[in-house]
Amino acid sequence: MPFVIDIDPVAFTILGVPVRWYGMILVVAAWVAIWLAQREARRRGVGAQHVWDAAMWVGVAALVGGRALYVIQNELPTLGGDPAHVLMVWSGGLSFYGGLLGALVALLLFARRRGISLLTALDIAAPGAAIGQAIGHLGCLIGGDSYGIPTDLPWAVVYRNPASMAPQGVPLHPTQAYEAILLGGLFVVIWLGRERLTRLGAGLTASAYLFGLAVIRFGLFFLRDEPAVFLGLKTAQWLGIGIAGLAVVVFIVARHQARPVQSSSIQLEASRP
Fold first, then answer.
1. Long-range contacts of 147-156 (CB under 8 A, 24+ apart)
2. Is 1 exposed, middle or buried (0-12, 13-18, 19+ CB in 10 A)?
3. Average pLDDT by consecutive 10-residue portion of the chain (273 residues)?
4. Beta bridge partners of 17
5. Global pTM?
6. Which of 105, 120, 207, 214 fits as disulfide partner to 244, beta carbons 3.0 to 4.6 Å?
7. What are the domain boundaries of the chain?
8. pLDDT at 92
């Protein structure tokens, strides 16, 4: 029997303003991500205040980037009649990869402004980003966003609430739950291995996160109800290939910068009597 989800996406209203489960879960996800980033920043000798300041930059940029890419992909033809709709996040949607790219650009600018190594900044953000995204997908599961294709598997989900974004009464792949579990596993791997990765070079934690994220989303989008755009792949899958390429670039740069340090350490050890 499939799992039935009959939850109103709106948890409650305050003075007539709807408060959605997705928004509340997103706040929890952001808090967890910032808390973990602070822990990692302290371990690397970076002040915790930098994390709070960066969170403001990254949060705004992720919102702008996520909304912009969503509009370009889904609503561009309709903007001529209502240009203000681009600002109406509550009546539209956000693109995950648009938010990620916006966040990366904001982190780049912030790191340069504060004189922090970009690779170190990326490493600090990576574990929190992974678990934050995992938590955030639970909000998608409740509201029916990012739903999967129909399936007869016993763990399928069926949405019954008319306010849900998913089709009603159809057993679907719970791709939101798949992504939450896989991203949670990615977080565990990079969190437990972050000290070793740090010793091998700044930026390797971020590289592992970006590559793992790209692989997870590339695979899961075969189960998402979206049209292919080129060579049988969907837009998010092509973006995922780009993110995987970025992960490889970060890895190469990280190893290149770490090699002189490691060579110096070896020479120092060899010179000791």
1. 147/172, 147/173, 147/175, 147/176, 147/224, 147/225, 148/172, 148/173, 148/174, 148/175, 148/178, 148/223, 148/224, 148/225, 149/173, 149/223, 149/224, 149/225, 154/1, 154/2, 155/2, 155/3, 156/2, 156/3
2. exposed
3. 89 87 90 94 87 90 83 66 58 75 92 91 94 93 91 95 91 96 97 91 94 96 90 92 95 84 47 50
4. 14
5. 0.86
6. 214
7. 3-46+116-192
8. 55
